[in-house]
From TrEMBL, chains A, B:
GO MF annotations in UniProt: DNA-binding transcription factor activity; transcription cis-regulatory region binding
UniProt name for this protein: Catabolite control protein A
Keywords, comma-separated and alphabetical: DNA-binding, Transcription, Transcription regulation
Pfam families the record matches: LacI, Peripla_BP_3
PROSITE patterns per record: HTH_LACI_2
InterPro entries xrefs: HTH_LacI, LacI/GalR-like_sensor, Lambda_DNA-bd_dom_sf, Peripla_BP_I
Domain (HTH lacI-type): residue spans on this chain: 8-62
Gene3D superfamilies according to UniProt: 3.40.50.2300, lambda repressor-like DNA-binding domains
Length: 334, 334
DNA sequence: TTGCGCAATGGCAACGTTAACATTTGGGCG
DNA sequence: CGCCCAAATGTTAACGTTGCCATTGCGCAA
């Protein structure tokens, strides 16, 4: 084993190649004003010494990091993997890297995410919001640090992007009404979930828009067990022919709950969920659900930052609609 | 809007506070050799100017980034969220950040992950391996860049860490044999999956260790549908009283497949899976499965790098055993 | 022959931070 | 009253890179 070498700098390469540091730098950036043979000599020296450009020196000089920070309050949230896929895809496209940080949610504020990021080598940041931060109204992004929030709430100073949960409910409810149902029952979620609450609004308002007074909802907790209980409860309600659950796990649980009480799906009751999360996990016939493109959401967020390269940013709000996936759990009642 | 300010440096703070740059630096690091009242004055200046220490300058000076890079060939893989939770948790503990990169899997080599990372501001790197890289045997980590592989294969030059998939199978098979079964059938997975193949070995060798010749396995593809088909096929085999599937989705599908052929679980056949991934998704009685602590795996990997702080690293290999979770899908046959 | 222009390369400075060393100040003690 | 020591603060230089400008060498036109 050789002793641990100090890191190799342009200076070392320059010395070995017998050129100036500047020529090494130009070679690294493949400048046309270096003679091909000189370039080759420099490259040989780089190979021999194992030269790797130093990120810190470069960033210091350039004043840019080519990196986007991602702050999450909760790493293991639904859709985070797909969003992450989107973050990295967009970052790659622009030659950026992604720096990931978990933010302690006590208190649950944008300020804590922001100050966490401020010490890191990032040019901009993305915050994934699941709940309502205490300082949402008053938060100001750090000067010079473009900030994108992944949320449906519009912020006056930060761009935002998310799936359109309101429209998701509209699609599902109108689809079910279109199939001949007189009303749609709803299995909700814990009240602190922003997206869940927005789905709830969408369900309620779409029904009203069709002149239907929304029936009493059943509050679930995202788990199949709570869906199962809801299904059992709704099985005894003769007015209930269509059920919309705020996620697929509850929808699936609901189906099994209905079946446990002798109801058949979709013959007696139609059931729809949201997320398209059960794809390969459940062997049953395909659930009617809404598919979101979280990867696209992630890409949009990072594009907004990495694609701006010095352009005056400008606040923008983007909602991507989901796609309704017809499954075998809804039949035609007309 | 004010014009975009140039970033604020220690120099600006020093001028405003009427002290030297060094005193500002010392204040930032809360050195005891600065008078409290001076500190307060400096801090006031920092607040007024909105000073944030510059990461590049700091790293350049220190020669360290306090950052660990994570390279993934496939972001949306099972367990990645939990691993990521572990990465960030360990990084936090040491005051490190995580930089995430997707590596193109063509070709699928450690070299491509390594060279991707070499240009980023990281002190060490973690590679998540799902398949066998073409250059596994010949790969050498970059000098000065400690590299940890998340895999069960031991590497001569890199530390490795993963769940113990062999032991996982041992636990399941011995549990089932202990419940009185004469043999255990196995639903496998695609052959390129390293962890899946190791589970297969574990199943086979554990049976042999008990003097049992392993029955013919059924190759699945991770999906519940393939498990369903396997269940149907095995339903007609009278010797089959215990089935071990290489993941929970296939196990669940298998149960439904058996049921579709009139077999009852666990009365007629016992079924076990791996992953503990169906927790809240399926309302049925609890599947017998093995739970892995991917967060711990992630923490170990980052600890190995961030916890070493200049210590001569040393190659180490770590396997964490899973925990068998008894469910209602196995009955006692004794 | 001289001068001009272009291609190729070199020298210098600065980005922001902090380790190492230097200096000043004030207090205690002989 | 002078000396010494410790606490508090200041000065300098260097980390690696690259933009800007200067310099060199060469071919070609006047």
């Amino acid at each position: 084993m050789a002793a641990v070498k100090k890191s190799v700098s342009v200076k070392d390469v320059a010395r070995l190649a017998g050129v100036s540091e500047q020529t090494v730098s130009r070679t690294v950036h493949d400048s046309p004003s270096v003679r091909p043979e000189t370039k080759e000599r420099v490259r040989a020296a780089m190979r021999e010494l194992g030269y790797r450009p130093n990120f810190a020196g470069r960033s210091l000089r350039r004043g840019k990091f080519k990196t986007v920070g991602v702050a999450m309050f909760n790493i293991t949230g639904t859709g985070n993997l797909d969003r992450m896929e989107g973050f990295t895809a967009a970052a790659d496209k622009h030659g950026y890297a992604i720096t990931l940080t978990k933010v302690d949610g006590h208190p649950y504020t944008l300020e804590s995410a922001s100050s966490r990021m401020s010490a890191l080598p990032v040019d901009g940041m993305v915050v994934i919001m699941n709940r309502m931060p205490a300082d949402f109204g008053t938060f100001e992004p750090l000067p010079g640090m473009q900030t994108v929030l992944v949320t449906m709430l519009e912020h006056p100073l930060c761009s935002t992007v998310d799936n359109d949960q309101f429209d998701c409910s509209r699609q599902v409810v109108e689809y079910l009404l279109g199939r001949g149902h007189k009303t749609v029952h709803f299995i909700s979620c814990p009240e602190r979930s922003l997206s869940g609450m927005r789905r709830e609004e969408g369900w309620r308002e779409t029904l009203r828009a069709h002149g239907i007074e929304p029936p009493r909802l059943i509050r679930g907790d995202w788990t199949a067990q709570s869906g199962y209980a809801a299904g059992q409860a709704l099985a005894d309600d003769p007015t209930c022919t269509a059920i919309y659950a705020s996620n697929d796990a509850m929808a699936y649980g609901c189906i099994r709950g209905l079946e446990s009480r002798g109801k058949r799906v979709p013959e007696d009751v139609s059931v729809a969920g949201v997320d398209d999360s059960l794809g390969d996990i459940v062997p049953d016939r395909r659930l009617t659900t809404v598919r979101f493109d979280n990867k696209r959401v992630g890409m949009w967020a990072v594009d907004k930052i990495a694609g701006a390269e010095g352009v005056e940013p400008g606040v923008e709000h983007m909602l991507f609609p989901g796609v309704l996936v017809e499954g075998d759990t809804v039949r035609d009642w007309r």
